[in-house]
Write a structure and sequence with these properties.
6-stranded antiparallel sheet, 8 strands, two-stranded antiparallel ribbon, 19% strand, alpha+beta, elongated, 253 residues
Length: 253
């Protein structure tokens, strides 16, 4: 190994070791001072670590933190839960702006799981409590994640028995494939009356530093409040918020 390469590796490891559970974020100046490296070397090394996913920049503070790629090395890192929790203010603002309940959701064992929920002032009684699991095929939040998974995962769902929760639930393979194609093209999913009659759900995908869709951001409310031009506004706001949360996970479009 060339001396210059060895030096670069050493610098990278020196920077990564600066982070700990007590010191989860550092500014560029902090990194340069604590690592005792020249600013030029610090800048070059930090840029490489960000590019490779080992560091990410918090868009709110512009400070650096360990990226998800560090998982492959078993180092210190935020759990997904902590990262999403940091992005929770975005979900709260979305809920307040649209005056509807908003959720961050994950996919687990072919079901959608609600990781966070911010409730609106409306007295809607939806089965979307934190930790609850719901079916994928009739929820925008579930389909919005499924649409960007590998073909085998999509096929697994389509080959399973799909229960019609309402007269409008899509259960036929071709109908769902057509909807999935639309989600992939438009980067959002809108469903009406498919899980609850008279309720509309709109979801957008959340991506991590690898560009993989790992979760979704959804808003669910009574259809009477989500009609016409309002739907266009909802879609725009939800996609924008999902993009900001993706930045917390290291994805920059």
């Amino acid at each position: 190994m060339k001396a210059s390469t060895l030096s670069s590796v050493t610098n990278a490891l020196r920077i990564l070791r600066l982070f700990s559970q007590k010191q989860k974020e550092l500014s560029f100046t902090d990194i340069a001072q604590l690592s005792d490296l020249p600013k030029s070397s610090t800048h070059r090394t930090v840029a490489t670590l960000v590019k490779e996913g080992f560091l990410s920049r918090n868009p709110r503070t512009n400070h650096y933190r360990l990226g998800l790629a560090i998982l492959s090395l078993g180092g210190v890192i935020f759990s997904h839960h902590e990262l999403y929790k940091e992005a929770l203010p975005i979900v709260k603002r979305l809920s307040e702006t649209l005056d509807e309940s908003a959720h961050i959701c994950l996919m687990e064992n072919m079901e959608v799981v609600y990781l966070f929920r911010v409730e609106s002032r409306h007295p809607d009684r939806l089965l979307t409590q934190i930790g609850r699991k719901n079916p994928i095929h009739c929820t925008s939040e579930g389909l919005c994640i499924l649409a960007f998974q590998d073909e085998s995962t999509i096929t697994q769902l389509l080959q399973s028995e799909l229960y019609p929760y309402t007269p409008y639930t899509l259960t036929h393979r071709n109908d769902l494939l057509s909807l999935i194609a639309d989600i992939q093209k438009n980067d959002y999913c809108l469903l009406e009356n498919t899980y609850y009659e008279n309720y509309t759900s709109i979801a957008a995908p959340i991506r991590d530093y690898t560009e993989k869709v790992v979760s979704s951001l959804s808003v669910i409310g009574h259809s009477s409040r989500m009609t016409g031009k309002k739907q266009e506004i909802f879609i725009e706001k939800i996609k924008d918020a999902a993009g900001k949360i993706s930045e917390y996970l290291g994805h920059y479009s």
